[in-house]
Amino acid sequence: MRWFAYNGDADGICSMVQWGLVHGVEGKRITGVKRDIVLLDRIHPSDDDEVIVMDISLARNHSMAQKLAQDGADITWFDHHLAGDKIELINAYIDTADNVCTARIVEQYLGVESSWAQVALHGDGLSKHSSNPEYKELGELLNYNGYGADLTDLHFHPDDLMMLCLESKTPEQFMQSPAFAKLKQGFDSDISNADSIIEQDGFFLLPNEAWARRVVGVMAHRINEKTAGPHVIAIDKVTTFQISMRGQTGIGELCAMFGGGGRATAGGIDNLPKEEITALMNEVNSRRSA
Predict the structure, then answer these.
(1) Architecture of the domain whose range is 2-187
(2) Is this structure's pTM higher than 0.85?
């Protein structure tokens, strides 16, 4: 049997759609909200099972990945986040360059040029590296759907949304669907609330409400398109901040300094103690002035 573990954002979904159009997606599929990335704990392969992982940091799943590999699982890993130490038993296709998303890695592996890879670039805030600007809205909407504290915040379960994209076959067909219309309606409402948020003390502070949890990712990408950053968007969780960060380079490493992670141009910290925000902003400001 084949197991899939994939991120519930645009890049994870588009990677799965590409795979599905070539090989199908039959098997057990494990996914969740965008920040639910420790997914290998939910995989229980038997002998001769295959595990396909897409758009999830190997560094954040390192111990479980190593255990599964040592137990005999056949693991193939596609990603562009921090990888951590190499695991020899895993077939890893990981590229952390700042102009690459997981869907582009999958596209290269499959050897089939795909519009879904272009959609994923937009979803990951890498629009300047896409040759198809007409897919920007779709990329943003697929990414927007992945953000939330849990699945109840989302308009669609990520696996349901992935299957709707796969059944549509092309981005153009999906953009004619009721699902696309529902995502657009929800996003337009949420982003109108975000437009009133202004930067204070060097970062943008959002309330811990469903609309803010949904829109924070796209809001961060849009802010990053205007100036170099790093940019910090925080959600107030009473005693901690949930941090989303964007910039030109080094963002994953910066977030990792405070218990988070990410990739070259985007990262996050799930629960930053409020007393650490000053230290974080000192690091951010030092890079802004560099």
Answers:
(1) Alpha-Beta Complex (3.90)
(2) yes
